[in-house]
Amino acid sequence: MLRGLHPFVLSLLVLMVAGLFITARASTSPIGVALDQRVIDLTDTLDTQTITRLKKQLDGLEQRKGSQVAVLLVPTTGDASIEDYANQVLRAWKLGRKDANDGILLVMAKDDRKVRIEVGYGLEGIVTDLLAHRIIEEHITPAFRQGDYAGGVQQAVNDLTVLVDGADLPEVAGPGIHPQAIAVLLAFILGGIGGVLIAAGKLPWRRALIAVVVVTLLLAFYGGGRDWPMYMLLLPLTQLIGGATFGALWLARTVFYGVIGLLLYIGGLLVVDRNVDVSFVHWLALPLGALVVLGAYLVLWVVMRDAWKTSRLGFAVRLLAAGAVYVAAGLVADAGREGWLLAFAIASFVALFIFGKTAGGAGSSSSGGSCGSSSSSSSSSSSSSGGGGSSGGGGASGSW
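Request: output the structure for the sequence above.
Response:
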């Protein structure tokens, strides 16, 4: 069993780690700051009460007008000017709605003593360069000079809120889901249920085919609209994919229940996100990363146990080789405690290959389970981008 399972597990782990890395970087700006909420303070300047109040105010503004306003406090912009820095972040975060480009970014570089209001294209006629300059000179920098950073930021947000509230912007789109998306999702879910019933021997093939036809007709009528002929082809394919996926997972019960648990966890995040800001990068990618690490060490334990049963001398030799990798990696890292922790992770990964050779060549039977994978895309929370972010450099800068 391990002979075919081991390369598959290693490939699976690599793909999952790569997927998590891409997910974690998806909403990250070129300067390494992720948009996971409307107020991001990397300087520990604002107190929790102020941050909560600002988030609530900006969320309310977005619900009323659709415009996305974000506040970013950083120690320094480095070699970049605050104008370039703010423009890069606005574009990378895609602040504002895609068609309206009605995003605004307030950036404070505390150590540089500089501040910038970056305005998206759609609001440059509302928050003009002159008005942005007046907000900075009359409300932000006087407060900052007195050390009242929370007061300066709050006043700026109040001013921007008044201006945006008075703007004639496109109406906010409703939160409803398109019927087409609902139809495809229902097709996948119903297909998955059918696949499990077939795999469990509870649903004959003829009845399954009849059910596919009925579901396709109903869902095509519900969500197909003018494109119903295309959905007559898409919906059966979606049901087939769902059925094949969950039918195969049913054969590996542990993995099946793990996937169901993961889907319930994601559903719970979506429900919580309706009332509380949820960072899907943190609450989804990090637990998945922990599961990947746990799974990797579980596989390592299995192959080490198999190597011990096959040849104790071979086990000792391979253990010494893994230990040598650990020592070499720790010496090369030369970063104190963190370096040796990194070396342990590297040695553990190498050990998978070292001991895996024994598991692959032993040919001994094992009653281990199968391993499957599931991946999920984090949907945008209320603090995610709106697809905008285009700015021609409109806004104003200042210093104190």
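The beta strands are 39-41, 68-74, 103-109, 114-119, 395-399.
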